[in-house]
């Protein structure tokens, strides 16, 4: 086994019933260019299809591979965190098991991070509508633009960082314990938690994640997304409102109200006559301190919803 210090990047993939995507996803992942000694960690959340079998077959001749086949389904955040705890590289790049990475994307992300001494790098994603195997040879062009922000939290709160595929320095990621395990989907909580302590963030204006033709996935469940976006920001306020600056607090509050409003707009009769709309508009117009009583009311409504997947650790 290679020395831990030799591993430049650990790829952490959460897996659940993605046998349709995995052959192409693994082809692109295992052939990432320009890396010295990558590590591949797959954590399967009790798939009922051939996902684990496909991973084992595809990686049988690859070094630095860890496959964790769990015996109980814990949800995405807990699954991702299990992989993060096993990671040994300087960098961690996380991805879903239906995300295809351009072959040179990780190399370019590491180069930018090293150039600016930044702890986190993000890019864009694109829904291609293509079959997975059509995307395995894609690359990031050399002429993309990017933005470096020394204030990582400001970058995250004012940018769009809603998918996997990010690159984060391992010591920072492990220091914040990865995703918030109270929230089922990790997409919003990881950037928030990391950015609070990170030394700078880079946003690449290039597609570093390619989304193939979609079948059945959680992104189609808008109530789930609204729920998890709300709780990501709500818990951030509960946990850290005392140690964040006022501008960041008001922005996180606005984002929590925005997630709540998105749900109300789609699901409540006469939404524009509600107090939810009023609160949302006021937060958009003015930098407000959080109204925790109102947020708690929103949280209780979200928790009462049927058809929303929840972590066993969620509580308010």
In short:
The protein has 316 residues and is α/β, with parallel strands linked by helices.
Provide tags for this entry.
alpha/beta, 8 strands, 316 residues, Spore Coat Polysaccharide Biosynthesis Protein SpsA, Chain A
Q: Give the spatial strand order of the biggest sheet.
A: 3-2-1-4-7-5-8-6
The topology string of helices and strands comes to EHEHEHEHEEHEHHEHHHH
Number of domains: 2
State the CATH superfamily name of the largest domain. Answer: Spore Coat Polysaccharide Biosynthesis Protein SpsA, Chain A
Work out the number of β strands. 8
State the helicity in percent bands.
Answer: 25-40%
**Total of DSSP H or I helical runs spanning 4+ residues:** 11
Q: Mind describing the biggest β-sheet?
A: 8 strands, mixed
Radius of gyration: 19 Å
CATH architecture tag of the largest domain: Alpha-Beta Complex
What is the structural class? alpha/beta
CATH class of the largest domain, named Alpha Beta
CATH topological fold name of the largest domain:
Spore Coat Polysaccharide Biosynthesis Protein SpsA, Chain A
- The averaged pLDDT comes out at 93
Strand content: 15-25%
* CA(first)-CA(last) distance: 44 Å
The coarse silhouette is globular
* Low-pLDDT windows of residues: none
Descriptive notes:
Strand 2, helix 2 and strand 3 (65-69) form a beta-alpha-beta unit. The protein has helices at residues 22-30, 51-58, 76-86, 105-116, 152-157, 170-175, 189-195, 222-240, 246-267, 275-285, 292-303; strands at residues 9-15, 39-44, 65-69, 91-96, 120-127, 146-151, 167-169, 199-211. The longest helix is centred in the last third of the chain and has 22 residues, at 246-267. With 316 residues, the chain is an alpha/beta fold. The chain is 39% helix and 17% strand. The chain has an eight-stranded mixed sheet, sandwiched between helices. Helix 8 packs antiparallel against helix 11. The chain is globular, with a radius of gyration of 19 Å. The protein folds into two domains: 6-218, Alpha-Beta Complex (Spore Coat Polysaccharide Biosynthesis Protein SpsA, Chain A); 221-303, no CATH class.
């Amino acid at each position: 086994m290679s020395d831990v210090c030799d591993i430049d990047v650990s790829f952490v993939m959460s897996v659940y019933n993605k046998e349709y995507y995995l052959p192409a996803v693994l082809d692109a992942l295992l052939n990432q260019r320009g890396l010295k000694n990558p590590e591949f960690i797959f954590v399967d959340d009790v798939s009922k299809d051939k996902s684990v079998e496909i991973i084992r077959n595809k990686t049988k001749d690859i070094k630095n591979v860890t496959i964790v086949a769990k015996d109980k389904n814990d949800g995405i955040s807990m699954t991702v965190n299990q992989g993060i705890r096993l990671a040994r590289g300087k960098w961690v790049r996380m991805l879903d098991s239906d995300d295809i990475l351009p072959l040179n994307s990780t190399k370019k992300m590491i180069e930018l991070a090293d150039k600016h001494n930044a702890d986190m790098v993000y890019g864009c994603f694109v829904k291609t509508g293509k079959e997975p195997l059509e995307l395995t040879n894609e690359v990031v062009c050399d002429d993309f633009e990017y933005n470096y922000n020394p204030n990582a939290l400001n970058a995250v709160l004012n940018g769009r960082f809603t998918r996997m595929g990010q690159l984060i320095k391992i010591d920072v990621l492990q220091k914040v314990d990865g995703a918030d395990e109270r929230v089922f989907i990790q997409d919003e909580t990881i950037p928030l938690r990391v950015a609070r302590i990170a030394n700078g963030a880079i946003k690449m204006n290039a597609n570093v994640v390619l989304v193939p033709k979609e079948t059945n996935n959680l992104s189609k469940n808008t109530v789930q997304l609204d729920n998890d976006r709300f709780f990501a920001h709500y818990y951030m306020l509960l946990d850290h409102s005392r140690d964040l600056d006022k501008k960041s607090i008001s922005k996180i509050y606005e984002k929590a109200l925005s997630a709540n409003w998105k749900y109300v707009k789609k699901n409540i009769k006469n939404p524009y006559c509600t107090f939810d709309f009023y609160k949302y508009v006021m937060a958009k117009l003015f930098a407000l301190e959080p109204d925790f009583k109102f947020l708690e009311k929103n949280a209780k409504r979200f928790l009462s919803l049927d058809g929303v997947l929840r972590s066993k650790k969620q509580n308010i």
